[in-house]
Amino acid sequence: MVAEHFFDKLVSRNAKAQLEPGLAESWSMLDDTTWEFKLRKGVKFSDGHEFTADDVVATLKRIPAVVNSPGSFSIYTRAIIGHEVVDPHTIRFKTASVYPLLPQDLNNVFIISKTMETAGTGDFNNGRAIVGTGPFRLQSFTPDDRVVMTRNDEYWGEKPDWRQVTYRFISNDGVRVAALLSGDVQLIDVVPPADTPRLRGTQGIAFAEIPSLRAIYLKIDTAHDVSPYLTGPNGEKLDRNPLRDLRVRQALSLGINRRPSWTASCRGPARPPAR
């Protein structure tokens, strides 16, 4: 979420989740296994160097090379089996077979500077490698506390409304809501469902809601007669798997709230969060 402020992707999404140009102005299939991306000109990284196809290549090379990656981005680049830099602002990707989802996949990959191709995870965590083309630049980072960012006035796209933004990490639901109500923060996300009715009835608090693209699902173990994942109320091993009982699964189903939404709450008129 924080990286969105500092880095761009080749392909972006608008508020309706439709694909739109990002660092790539356009893309097309030249044949069944070749995609061509035309890159945006005049874009600069926060260290001053111009964005070119070499930065895209460096990004793709780094992804599978990250040591002990907790969540590799390779899932979004594994369809690419080769690439060709036609000129500084044109790059072609080869796939093993027809692969229409490449633009959607590349919507999930942040483009880093070629100067940071070999940077370790620690360099990104401490901020040294936060060299991007995004709408903000990193000013300071305090682990588990806050990120302070300043507007990138040379940003190629629409400039942010805010000159400086402080993004705070408040993991406790009660503290996060209290910070909003007291005016200590202007906006929160991950609004606790239990506090939603109270916040909706509070003067000066507005909500911004939109259906989410993310799907989180609960998978229950129905494969084992004795499940290795289940225990009794006191941690004891069960001699049978209750999830094999249709009635138990139906009871769990009845307890699920199926109304999906992304909710943010803020003081004053509702407006989208800073990018």
Key structural traits:
single chain; 275 residues; alpha+beta; four-stranded antiparallel sheet; three-stranded antiparallel sheet; globular; disordered C terminus
Task: Please state the structural category.
Answer: alpha+beta
- Using the CA coordinates, give the radius of gyration: 23 Å
Order of helices and strands: EEEEHEEHHEEEHEHEHE
* Broad shape: globular
Question: Helix coverage percent of residues?
Answer: 10-25%
Give the tally of β-strands.
12
Contiguous low-pLDDT stretches (5 residues minimum) are 270-275
Average of pLDDT: 91
Oligomer: single chain
Biggest sheet, open or closed, and with what strands and sense? Answer: 4 strands, antiparallel
Strand arrangement, major sheet: 3-4-6-5
Whole-Å distance between the termini? Answer: 9 Å
Describe the structure.
The protein has helices spanning 53-62, 102-106, 121-125, 173-182, 196-200, 246-254, and strands spanning 11-13, 19-21, 24-31, 34-39, 80-87, 90-95, 136-142, 146-151, 164-168, 187-189, 205-210, 262-267. The strands form four sheets. A four-stranded antiparallel β-sheet has the order 3-4-6-5, with helices on one face. It has 275 residues and is α+β, with helices and mostly antiparallel strands. Residues 270-275 have low confidence and may be disordered. Helix content is 16%, strand content 24%.
